[in-house]
């Protein structure tokens, strides 16, 4: 086994976990409210990630100003983002949702241009247009007349909104991740997101825990342990040993995994419009990312 094989296996596992998160979330929110799922998921995730950091001797307290910044990111990027997405997944298909979320790097490029004044070149603009058309093709099931008819799926629109919240979180977190070790930063972000989810959980979610069956608990544990803790550890461990450009390519696998997992476990159909639209989204994202690396 070469020195690069181990980190590649880690990053592959990370994107496989993230690809399966859509199906796991959809299963969990079909049993209990998104509030209960988020509280359990991020409580488990923070505990596991904190334990891993402690065992690796990387767990430490941070100055108050950094903690305040991470708390803001936890509210926006963990609690609000996942709350919107979980509500969307109650009615939206898991595979379609993953393909929509795949356009997030394109939204990040747009927001970076507006908020951070980063320059967009012509090819990036083409990629953005292509990805946006791909999302519209997915939402319309191949019938773009839906824009005129107003026949929207509210769940899918919520998933689109969650792509924007994650893009905003990514833009806002750039500064924090430059000064704080990424895995440690994510621990405090997840922990603060769990804290914010505790407030509505105390009023609504406590009485729902008993409704979770074996499938619900299995999905929640998968989300907490594998998607919210180990995936981030594997991802950042790989970034230390591999070029960021190589690690980033693995993200293209995640929506494909999500569609396959949703087809196997949820019986979601493989729509031609999703395949075509997903292809446009991934192509557009690859064009945008290629120009950014250049």
TrEMBL record:
EamA domain: which residues? 11-139, 154-289
Per UniProt, what is one Pfam family of this protein?
EamA
User: Gene Ontology cellular component?
Assistant: membrane
Q: InterPro entries of this UniProt entry?
A: Alkyne_AA_exporter, EamA_dom, EmrE-like
- State whether keyword Transmembrane helix applies: yes
TM segment ranges: 33-55, 67-84, 96-116, 128-146, 152-172, 184-203, 215-235, 247-265, 271-290
Q: Does the keyword Transmembrane helix apply?
A: yes
Keywords from UniProt, A to Z, are: Membrane, Transmembrane, Transmembrane helix
Q: What is this protein called?
A: EamA domain-containing protein
Q: Which organism is it from?
A: Aminobacterium colombiense (strain DSM 12261 / ALA-1)
């Amino acid at each position: 086994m070469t020195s690069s094989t181990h980190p590649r296996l880690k990053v592959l596992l990370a994107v496989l976990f993230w690809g399966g998160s859509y199906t796991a979330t959809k299963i969990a929110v079909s049993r209990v409210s998104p509030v209960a799922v988020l509280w359990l998921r991020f409580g488990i995730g923070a505990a596991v990630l904190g334990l891993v950091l402690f065992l690796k001797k990387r767990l430490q307290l941070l100055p108050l100003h950094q903690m305040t910044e991470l708390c803001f990111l936890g509210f926006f990027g963990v609690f609000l983002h996942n709350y919107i997405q979980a509500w969307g997944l109650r009615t939206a298909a898991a595979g379609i949702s993953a393909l929509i979320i795949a356009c997030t790097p394109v939204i990040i490029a747009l927001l970076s241009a507006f908020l951070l004044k980063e320059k967009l070149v012509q090819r990036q603009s083409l990629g953005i247009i292509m990805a946006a058309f791909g999302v519209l093709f997915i939402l319309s099931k191949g019938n773009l007349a839906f824009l005129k008819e107003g026949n929207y799926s509210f769940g899918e629109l919520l998933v689109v909104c969650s792509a924007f919240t994650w893009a905003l979180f990514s833009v806002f977190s750039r500064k924090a991740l430059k000064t704080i070790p990424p895995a440690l930063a994510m621990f405090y972000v997840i922990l603060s997101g769990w804290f914010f989810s505790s407030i509505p959980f105390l009023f609504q979610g406590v009485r729902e825990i008993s409704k979770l069956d074996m499938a619900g608990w299995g999905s929640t544990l998968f989300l907490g342990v594998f998607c919210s803790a180990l995936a981030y550890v594997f991802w950042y461990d790989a970034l230390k040993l591999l070029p960021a450009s190589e690690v980033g390519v693995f993200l293209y696998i995640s929506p494909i995994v999500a569609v396959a997992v949703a087809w196997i476990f949820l019986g979601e159909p493989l729509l031609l419009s999703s395949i075509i639209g997903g292809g446009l989204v991934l192509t557009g994202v690859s064009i945008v990312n290629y120009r950014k690396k250049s």
